[in-house]
Amino acid sequence: MTMPDRDLDYEAIRRNVEKGVQDQRQFYRRLFFGINLTIYLVTMLIVWGVAVFNAQTGSGLYDGRLAEAAIVLLPTVMWGFVILCHAALLYTESATAEKTMREQVLARELGEEILRTATSYDDREKPKRDNATSLSEQIALTDDGELVYAEESGIDGQVGAYRRA
What is the pTM of this model? Predict the structure, then answer.
């Protein structure tokens, strides 16, 4: 026996599922970033503590020997760069960054469309009245002061003589 198909809004259910998955994904990304940052800080405290308080390694750091300095500085800088990239990734996937990016893209697209429209508008020439091609578009002034179409007045070729400037 199956449950009768009621008026379920499958689109709303799908949107809720997608939002839930997105929220959960964002939560785990932030959690893993926090874990990564915590392990980095603890590890670097231990590495730098050993390097500074160990007589052999500490003297190598202060004397300028490259091997001892590289053992401490290389992981610090490289892992720090990874943490920075991880933070940048979290920011670009956040709602704030998405809103900012959408606004920037919208402003750019609107600006380009306005420029495109303005350029095409400037290329067009305003139609002149003197360039009327048919006699029905030309208006003449008769002797008694009335405006008539040139073909109605019977003036055919003399329209320009009756036109008031």
Answer: 0.52
Tokens matching residue 37: 């940052």
HEC string of the chain? CCCCCCCCCHHHHHHHHHHHHHHHHHHHHHHHHHHHHHHHHHHHHHHHHHHHHCHHHHHHHHHCCHHHHHHHHHHHHHHHHHHHHHHHHHHHCCHHHHHHHHHHHHHHHHHHHHHHHHHHHHHCCCCCHHHCCCHHHCEEECCCCCEEEHHHHCCHHHHHHHCCC
Scanning the structure block, which residue is given the tokens 């990304």? 29
How far is the C-alpha of 71 from the C-alpha of 63, rounded, in Å?
Answer: 14
And the tokens for 92? Answer: 């670009």
Model confidence at 79: pLDDT above 50: yes
Among 56, 55, 52, 86, CA closest to 72: 52
